[in-house]
Every structure is written in C-alpha cells, then in structure tokens.
Write a sequence for this structure.
C-alpha cells in the first residue's frame, strides 16, 4: 500500500500544470521511464540491489495508463499506482464542490473516493483545505470535523479517514508560533488518543509546519543560545580562579572536598568561535541598539518596474552604517531576525504565558553576519560548519511545537518513519522559500511528515531501496550533495530570474525525474507545481490483507466529507446542465414573460429550438415540465392568463393535479 502526502499550495494551479504536462497524448515517454524505474531496469545502487534480494514479498509495480483517462489519473499511475493520496492547501471553496464547479472535476477520479475538509470560517475561506483520495474499497468512513471544535474544524486543516484497522489523519498545521497553532496541535493529539482508545492504530501525515531534528533544517539556520555560551565562560572562570585548595598527608593538592586535584579533569578549553562570541558580544549588543529599518527600492531590469522594500541597518562605532539582512517586504520583517528579546504568548486556554524563544537565541547565519559586519571577525566556511555541528547549535528547544512533537514521539509512541529509516540523511528537505529561489541551493526545511504508531512499524516496507538522488545513483545517497542533485534533478531545474518571468520551462526528462519505484521517502515533484515536494510511505503488500475489503458507510460525517455527492433536486438531476440554470431562473422570476415562456396556448406552434430539444430527449423534457410546471404557475402573471392550454380540464381537476405535482416536487427537492 502506497500512501503519498503533498502540500500542493493550491490544487487548481497544480492540476493545471499536471494537465499541461501529462495529458494522455504526452504520457507515452513518461510511462516508459516510470515503468523502467519501477521494474528496476535502470542501474541501481548496491544497497538497492541487496534489498531487492530480501525475502519481503515484491510489490506490484506494473504501471498502466489509459488513453482516454484524465491527466490526473495518469499522473497517479505514473507515481506507482498510489493507494492513498493526501493533499494539503487545496484552497477549493466548499461551494464549488457542492455545486460541482471545482477545477477539472477533481472531486471525482475513477477508482478513488475523495474526502474533503474546506475552510468555512470567514478568515480562512478560500485558503487551507485538505483532501484525501483513497482507492475504492479501503475506506469505511470519514470525518471532516475530527477535532470536535467548530473553530478549528472550520479552518479546513484536518480530515480523518477510517481504514478498518487504522485511521489516517491528513493535516495542514498552522504556521508560526501562536496560540491557534498550539490549540490545533493539542486538539489533534487528543483526537488521535481517542482513536487509540477505540482500538485503532494511527497514521499521521501532512504539512506539520514544524521540525524535530537539527538535520531537518538547513545548517546555517540552526540556532545558538548566546546566553549559554556566556554562562559557560563564567563557570570556567569560577573553576579556575575560585577553587579552594589544600594539601593532604602525602602532600598532594586537593580541594576542600578531599578530591585529588591532580586527577581532576582540567577545564575544557573553549572553541575559538565561542571565545570570539564571549569577547565581542557586548559590543554587538551595543551597536544593535541603533538598528532601524530603512525604505529602499528595487527595480526589475526587464520591465523597469520598481518595488518598495526594506532593509535593516546599524550605526557602527566609527559613525558608518552597516546594512544587515536582505530586502524584505515590510519594516517588521527586516528587523525580525535581529531582535533577540524573549518571545512569549498568552495561552487563553490555561491563562498562562508561554515562552517560545529565550533571549539572545539566533541562527548561525545571523551570528556569522554580526561577527563580520560589526566587529570585523570573519569565520571561514569550516568554522561556520563547526558552529552548526556543535552541540550548542540545534533547533529552538523552547519552541512549543517542537516540545509537542517530542511528546508525540516519546509519550504517545509514534515514529517518524523517514528519520527511522534514514537516520544519517542530511539535506533532505520538503519545502523551500520559493520567492528567494532557495530550492536551487537546497536551503530548506523538512516540515512534511509521515508518522505511524509503533505497532504499525513492522508493516512498513523497508526493502524499497535508498533515497532518490536525481536522475542517477549517487555514491553517498545520504549526503548533502545527493540531496542537492535530487531537489534540482541534477541541475535541470534552474532558478528563475529575480527580474521576473516566473519559473522556467524544463525538459520532459527533468519533469519525469519525479517518477520512480514506490518507496518510503521523498518524491521530488517539480518546483513549478508547488514549493513543497511530496513524501511517501510504503507499506508491505501483506498490509492490504490486514486492511481487507471495506464498504463505505453512509453516516453523517462521511456524507459531510463528500460535498460533491450532495443529493440534488429531481429537477436538477433530470435537466441537462444548460437547462438547469434556465429552470432555476424561471422559477425565481416573477415576470409575465418568464411565466409565459413555459406555456404554449392552444393552436400555437412551439419554437423550433424547443421542438429540437424535445426530439432529443422527450422523456426528460416531459418530466421537467411535470415537476417544474407548478412552480412556474405560482407567479401572478400565470393566474391572470386567460388562454387555456390544449386539453385543459375543469378548475377543480387542475387544482387537484397542482396539489399532487407540488407534493412530488417538494418531496424530491427536500432530499
């Protein structure tokens, strides 16, 4: 069973790209490439070959596409016949799904059921949204409000599908560090615990907007707590200068506790970079007191269009100014990375103030810049790496989302499958800053996850080979160079110009590099599709037997999660798409013209167009007249009409017939 999760950053533009690149007529070469990769006809690494000889039952990797199939269907087949596809940020309004006006009719894919959660609150409407596509027969129910909180469920960030032995949560966690994010995470954790108490195992996938390991972030973005470095200096000084010593009977130097001082380890010498920080931090903080945001303009060299931007600057001791950071869209953004005060927020649920970042915590990149521009101390690349790889450089340990994820792994027994399978992998990110072209230098973060309960770990297929490394194998698939090759398709994905013009078109070979054999890892979808790539979780073939063949229930939560299946009125069902609008408008209209347009007096001929429609589908037309007629006759103009239709009966018979018609119409409309 192959489960894929992907933040598409808008399903409509992503589908448009897929339809342009993978229409049935253009799938032939892609199908060949994907089939070759899936069946192992290309060269593979030694590790992959060894894994292929394992006793695990081989997955069915046959890939077929249909000439008349929609491009999205073919796209899923090219990715190895995905069983469950979880998408985040689809951004499709609920109204489009319920009226079947969604882009490319994406709610219906042959062979799949789709389950939707849309943003319905006013602040989030048109944003967010998650959808899970699952093959028919592997879902028994769904819930688009699993958090049991109208405010949170109305944001369209979570959909839960029940697969018998396990439930799958597809989530799009709020960004940043604020009360809403933690409220969402705590509600999610409680909902997963409820499912475990009912006997279900839990799978959690999606855009978590957090990190759990220092390797989940570009090395220059790891943070250092300067306060701890300064404290370390003070402690060393106390050990060296304030130690009380005496001699024992043998004349050996001991401290007041009687310990042999000659056997004690001497004070650990500080690294040079720590010494630099301790010697210059006071001066840096003094200069930072002069920081300000200054407006500036950038110009597009092609169009000559100008943009208002902001930069941070400080005044040095000699009276000169130093510019810090890059161009930002607001003054707040320009100053944010150089503000090192303690950050906290008020938790309304507990009425407590939570610290989310301590004082003087900053990234390796910012610390290096301050040392260079303010105190003229330059660190070479090796020194910068030493800082990033030291124990002092890590994720922010006080970040509430970080602590939440840590508790999820340690207390709730979930497993980060990617890190479990590839503990040494470096530079494997899932999201990059699109506007700053960070993907092309692989400066990103791993914020998309597949997590499973530990009890499901034995069902994960570990024989699927190594991580993907672009268009060809790499001698070190877990190194940073291999990761760069993978996210740029060996350099075929090129950064667009900052002057404008958008992401450049790439070759079919570059596009097809996203395909490969099903595996647990990362699927390097093109940068033109989204600023995120897809991630995958491959379960053993035998896991399908554990799930079994399921029948989709028709309970209220499941129906709510499928708004595209909302039952229409009988009139709408029987009318052609074009006629539905006409019927609706004629029903609401109260003009005599509207009413008379559906009534033909005795001795008159019907319009030629109406006669043609009746010949094409006389049954539908007669049924439409039968159910829709009484509604139109309610208008005042029809009551004043003196012309009797052909074959008319007495007024009593007409009233009786009208009563019957209205009852039937209301019966079907209410359903």
């Amino acid at each position: 069973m192959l489960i894929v999760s992907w933040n598409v950053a808008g399903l409509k533009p992503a589908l448009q790209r897929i339809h342009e690149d993978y229409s049935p007529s253009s799938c032939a070469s892609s199908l060949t490439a994907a089939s070759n990769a899936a069946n192992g006809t290309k060269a593979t690494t030694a590790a992959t070959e060894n894994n292929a000889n394992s006793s695990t039952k081989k997955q069915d990797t046959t890939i077929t596409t249909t000439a008349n199939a929609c491009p999205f269907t073919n796209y899923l087949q090219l990715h190895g016949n995905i069983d469950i596809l979880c998408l985040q940020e689809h951004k499709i309004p609920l109204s489009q799904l319920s009226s079947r006006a969604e882009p490319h009719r994406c709610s219906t894919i042959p062979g799949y059921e789709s389950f939707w959660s849309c943003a319905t609150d006013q602040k989030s409407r048109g944003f967010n949204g998650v959808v899970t596509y699952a093959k028919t027969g592997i879902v028994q129910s769904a819930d688009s409000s699993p958090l049991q909180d109208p405010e949170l469920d109305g944001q369209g960030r979570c959909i839960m599908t029940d697969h018998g032995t396990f439930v799958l949560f597809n989530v799009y966690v709020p960004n940043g560090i604020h009360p809403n994010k933690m409220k969402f995470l705590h509600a999610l954790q409680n909902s997963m615990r409820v499912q475990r108490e009912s006997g279900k195992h839990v799978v959690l996938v999606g855009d978590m907007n957090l990190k759990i390991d220092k390797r989940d972030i570009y090395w220059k973005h790891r943070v250092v707590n300067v306060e701890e470095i300064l404290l370390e200096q003070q402690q060393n000084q106390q050990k060296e200068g304030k130690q009380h010593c005496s001699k024992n009977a043998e004349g050996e130097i001991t401290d007041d506790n009687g310990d042999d001082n000659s056997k004690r380890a001497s004070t650990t010498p500080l690294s040079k970079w720590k010494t630099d920080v301790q010697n210059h931090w006071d001066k840096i903080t003094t200069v930072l007191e002069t920081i300000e945001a200054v407006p500036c303009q950038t110009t597009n060299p092609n169009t000559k269009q100008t943009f208002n931007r902001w930069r941070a600057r400080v005044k040095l001791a000699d009276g000169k100014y130093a510019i810090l950071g890059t161009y930002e869209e607001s003054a707040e953004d320009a100053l944010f990375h150089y503000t090192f005060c303690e950050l906290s927020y008020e938790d309304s649920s507990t009425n407590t103030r939570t610290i989310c970042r301590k004082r003087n915590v900053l990234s390796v990149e910012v610390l290096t810049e301050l040392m260079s521009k303010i105190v003229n101390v330059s660190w070479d690349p090796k020194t910068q790496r030493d800082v990033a790889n030291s124990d002092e450089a890590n994720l922010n340990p006080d970040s509430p989302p970080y602590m939440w994820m840590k508790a999820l792994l340690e207390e709730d027994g979930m497993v980060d499958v990617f890190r479990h399978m590839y503990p040494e992998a470096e530079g494997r990110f899932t999201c990059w800053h699109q506007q700053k072209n960070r993907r092309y230098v692989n400066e990103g973060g791993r914020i998309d996850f597949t997590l499973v309960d530990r009890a499901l770990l034995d069902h994960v297929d570990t024989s699927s080979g190594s991580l993907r490394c672009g268009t060809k194998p790499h001698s070190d698939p877990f190194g940073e160079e291999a990761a760069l090759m993978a996210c740029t398709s060996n350099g075929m994905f090129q950064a667009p110009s900052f002057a404008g013009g958008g992401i450049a078109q790439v070759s079919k070979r570059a596009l097809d590099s996203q395909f490969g054999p099903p595996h647990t890892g990362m699927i390097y979808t093109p940068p033109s599709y989204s600023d995120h790539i897809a991630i995958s979780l491959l379960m053993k073939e035998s896991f399908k037997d554990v799930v079994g063949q399921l029948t989709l229930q028709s309970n209220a939560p499941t129906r709510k999660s499928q708004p595209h299946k909302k039952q229409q009125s009988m009139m709408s069902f029987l009318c052609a798409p074009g006629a539905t609008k006409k019927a609706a408008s004629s029903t609401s209209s109260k003009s005599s013209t509207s009413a008379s347009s559906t009534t033909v007096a005795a001795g008159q001929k019907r319009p030629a167009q109406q006669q043609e429609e009746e010949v094409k589908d006389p049954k539908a037309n007669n049924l439409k007249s039968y159910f829709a007629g009484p509604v139109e006759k309610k208008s005042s103009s029809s009551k004043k009409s003196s012309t009797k239709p052909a074959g008319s009966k007495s007024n009593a018979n007409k009233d009786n017939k009208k009563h019957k018609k209205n009852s039937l119409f209301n019966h079907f409309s209410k359903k």
